[in-house]
Amino acid sequence: MDINNERLLQYFKQFSAIGATPGGGVHRLALSDEDKQARDLFVELLHDLGAEVKIDDLGNIYGIKQGTNPEAEPVVIGSHLDSVPNGGKYDGAVGVLGALEVLATLVDAETTHQRTLIIVNFTNEEGARFPKPMIASGVLAGVYTTEDMHSLQDESGTTIREELERINYLGAPEHRLTNIDSFIELHIEQGPYLINENAHIGLVQGIHGLSWHDVKFTGKSDHAGPSPMKDRRDAGLSAMHALTRVEDYVLNLQDETRFTTGRFQLAPGVVNAVPGEARFSIDIRHPLNDTLKERIETIQQMIEDEAARRGVKSEMSDLSYMPPVPFSTRLLQAAERITSQKNIDAPQLYSGAGHDAMYMSHLGETLMLFIPSLDGVSHNEQEESRWEDIVTAVDVLGDLVLEQLNR
């Protein structure tokens, strides 16, 4: 597809300015004022292209270019515009803007096609402000209920429904996606594999499963001076020892297991007091469902054992679970054929991060295309991808989409 590189770059510059941070990233939390600004611009650009715009009761935005066969199920492409705090400007946005450029190219060429094309921006993909990632696509897939999403609160107690109403993006339930032919999501890799392979694009076979947990250690808070070291029930040190033990276990596996603690809090949280409580998050990932469940059980047992050994109590609660998702073999083969025809080396890989594509796979055949991430950096202001790789990926996306529209 002969995409317009300059227009795509202009799109990217416009959206990168919304919520821009001094470090070169973006701070655009879901349903914030910055997210509203990005949404408004997206809707404006869709209207400029003559697309029909619909918004559902989850805040998802759809730009629609009708096909010639109203009975044929639509092809859907897109991603998300929200970010993590002080995140990168490529994550999610390249998928939405790449989809927008594909739409614009089809409009420019006055291309007709059998299936309807739908461009989508999903609500709260990141789960950074409202702590259930990809919940809007999850509701579409039937994994969550509307109430699950609308009642979800941020740290201030504000619900998603309240914020959808505030920014005027609480649409109608009849606008939701239901039956689709296929969904294709363009995204940055967020890891180092493709850049280390000197590749310009990657074809994604599926997504690792992931499991989020909250862990609380309860000991006894004491004065830091009079309290003897040997008599302490220090929740903070106990938690740290448990995490170090788990890290050693995962490193020794030497497989695809991923383990992360991104949040760690101590109470009372003062310099001269032994912590009586420690709370931390756990993120566990693996591409095989049975193995993922085994890892969760093993890690939970290790945490309980370490807590008991140090005389403190432990509680591990579930926050979110998403099983591994295999993608469409047919779409993967089609993408292989297109990249081969263009003489583009396109390694295949699994995604270690969750994406809306994992839930969209419940509605139709699904595939992801990855753009290499420089140094594998993401969820960081220093997140970067080569512009020539972005152009290559959008070009492949366009050809793949056009093929599906006329299938």
From TrEMBL:
Transmembrane segments: none
UniProt keyword annotations, A-Z: Hydrolase, Metal-binding, Zinc
UniProt keyword Zinc present: yes
Residue intervals of the Peptidase M20 dimerisation domain: 208-309
Cofactor(s) of this protein: Zn(2+)
Record bears the keyword Metal-binding: yes
GO MF annotation list: hydrolase activity, acting on carbon-nitrogen (but not peptide) bonds, in linear amidines; metal ion binding
SUPFAM superfamilies assigned to the protein according to its UniProt record, in alphabetical order: Bacterial exopeptidase dimerisation domain, Zn-dependent exopeptidases
Cofactor note: Binds 2 Zn(2+) ions per subunit.
Listed InterPro entries: Amidase_Cbmase, Bact_exopeptidase_dim_dom, Peptidase_M20, Peptidase_M20_dimer
Domain of life of the source: Bacteria
Sequence positions that bind Zn(2+) 2: 91, 126, 379
Gene3D superfamilies linked to this entry: 3.30.70.360, Zn peptidases
Binding-site positions, Zn(2+) 1: 80, 91, 187
NCBIfam families attached to this UniProt entry: hydantase, PRK09290.1-5
Family: Belongs to the peptidase M20 family.
UniProt name for this protein: N-carbamoyl-L-amino-acid hydrolase
Protein species of origin: Salsuginibacillus halophilus
